[in-house]
Specification:
Blueprint lengths: L2 H21 L4 H11 L6 H4 L1
């Protein structure tokens, strides 16, 4: 699978998950902010990758 297609599939999957979370009443920006607070990007690149 080429990188562009892989990114597109991940992007579509993320969009679906965000839509589902919104439907369930979650405030997605707050969830993302909390995640980044608990898992800073520089310290957890391997976790996010």
């Amino acid at each position: 699978m080429n990188t562009t297609l892989h990114i597109k599939l991940l992007s579509d999957e993320l969009a679906e998950k965000v839509a589902l979370m919104r439907e369930q009443g979650f405030h997605v920006p707050t969830l993302v902010r909390n995640f980044l607070t608990n898992y800073p990007l520089e310290q957890n690149k391997e976790r996010i990758a």
